[in-house]
Design goal:
Blueprint (H helix, E strand, L loop, with lengths): L21 H4 L15 E3 L2 E3 H6 L19 E3 L3 E3 L9 H12 L9 H13 L4 E11 L2 E12 L1 E12 L11 H20 L6 E11 L16 H13 L1 H4 E8 L8 E4 L4 H13 L6 E6 L6 H5 L4 E5 L22 H20 L3 H6 L5
Parallel strand pairs: 7-8, 7-9, 9-12, 10-11
Antiparallel strand pairs: 1-4, 2-3, 5-6, 6-8
Helix pairs in contact: 3-5, 3-10, 5-10, 8-10
Length: 374
């Protein structure tokens, strides 16, 4: 790691009050400007000193109308024009079927027979992709474990890789089947893989290579994730890719975790790369799902951190408020009946839309250097 991050949240402590109040906060934040489609579609952020202090009194109209603040009192962030592309869509019911198949195996912690069965399930469902096994022995507080990251590669016509990731292990707890925590994001990636495979031509997709990464050992083996326990698979793979040069080709790393909640509200992660979050936000708006994304923020310690520390643009898509005050998290109540196929579909489709927008984006310099104003 790179030291203490403030503010930060592990999957244990929520530091942002809004996370415990997402239902009451939904819709109370300053509304985003309604932008019309003109020669594609754009996003404009305006920060006005007086209006900012006053809260939500700031008024921003559509691109056809004037901005309701004086030019000299406003600072306008550089405008990014995102490609007006249409990505394929996943089917939420198919994703939910994957979740049910996984949870029916029972608890799937590292080293268990059910974990082995799950590995076989993933490999079977990823047929048609170029599969790579990243197996390693890991010392943990509970001894040494064999772990396995599974990587499904869909080659592209452009130089560079976009990584979509999830962890697939479950926490070692009695009767914990991890429908949302472990199951939901794994299922979304499997559904995305089906669409990537369907849109290959002559063995390649049009755009960057897309690699689906299923991390093992995300959950701490002893108590909770800390510097010496948990996030094993992502730390191992980030180090491996740093050594072999893969990270230099990685354009973006998008992690999904706990994305099946019926009341979906993906937080804006303070440890993620702002320009990549902005692109994902634009993808959500393109699909009409912006109300489910980034209405509140906090920092997460998750499988993306090792890649952030290695200099990769990263985003963590997580709804860390599962049940009232996160009551279902890491309990036997985390079952498939708590999930919504619609939520799985929304997250999967936004991830695919983000990939298609990354494929088509012309100016990476603008994305990477501009200052996002919030």
């Amino acid at each position: 790691g790179s030291g203490v991050r403030e503010p930060f949240t592990t999957k244990v402590t929520k530091v942002h009050e809004g996370m415990r109040k997402k239902r009451s906060l939904r819709g109370t934040s300053c509304p985003k400007p309604a932008l019309s489609a003109v020669e594609g579609w754009f996003k404009v952020w305006v920060l006005a000193g007086v209006a900012f202090v006053a809260g939500c009194e700031q008024k921003v109209t559509t691109l056809e109308g004037p901005v309701a603040v004086k030019a000299e009192s406003a600072q306008v962030a550089p405008t990014v024009q995102y490609a007006d592309v249409t990505a394929p869509k996943i089917a939420g019911q198919r994703a939910l079927a994957h979740v049910k198949a996984l949870t029916e195996m029972g608890p799937r912690p590292v080293g268990s027979a059910a974990h082995k069965k799950m590995e076989q399930y993933l490999v079977g469902k990823l047929a048609g992709a170029q599969l790579e096994d990243d197996r390693f022995e890991q010392q943990t507080p509970l001894g040494k474990f064999a772990m396995r990251n599974i990587i499904a590669k869909y080659p592209g016509t452009k130089d560079g890789v976009v990584v979509l990731a999830s962890h697939y292990d479950t926490k070692k707890l009695p009767n914990f089947v991890g429908a949302n925590d472990g199951g939901s994001s794994t299922a979304v990636l499997l559904a995305i893989g089906e669409q990537l495979r369907a849109h290959m031509k002559d063995g390649k997709r049009e755009g960057f290579s897309v690699w689906l990464v299923f991390f093992d050992g995300e959950e701490a083996l002893d108590a909770d994730i800390n510097a010496s326990d948990g996030l094993y698979g992502s730390k191992h793979l980030a180090q491996k890719w740093k050594q072999d040069g893969t990270l230099n080709r990685t354009k973006a790393f998008i992690l999904a975790d706990m994305v099946g909640d019926q009341d979906l509200a993906v937080l804006r992660d303070a440890n993620s790369t702002p320009w990549l979050l902005d692109l994902i936000d634009a993808a959500a708006e393109k699909l009409g799902h912006q109300s489910h994304f980034f209405q509140y923020s906090s920092g997460m310690i998750d499988d993306h951190i090792a890649f952030k520390d290695a200099g990769v643009p990263i985003a963590d898509l997580i709804d860390f408020d599962y049940g009232f005050q996160n009551a279902f998290w890491h309990t036997p109540e985390d079952t498939a009946d708590k999930l919504s196929p619609r939520s799985l579909e929304i997250v999967g489709n936004v991830m695919l839309q983000a990939v298609w927008m990354l494929d088509a984006h012309k100016s990476w310099i603008v994305l990477e250097t501009r200052t996002t104003m919030r």
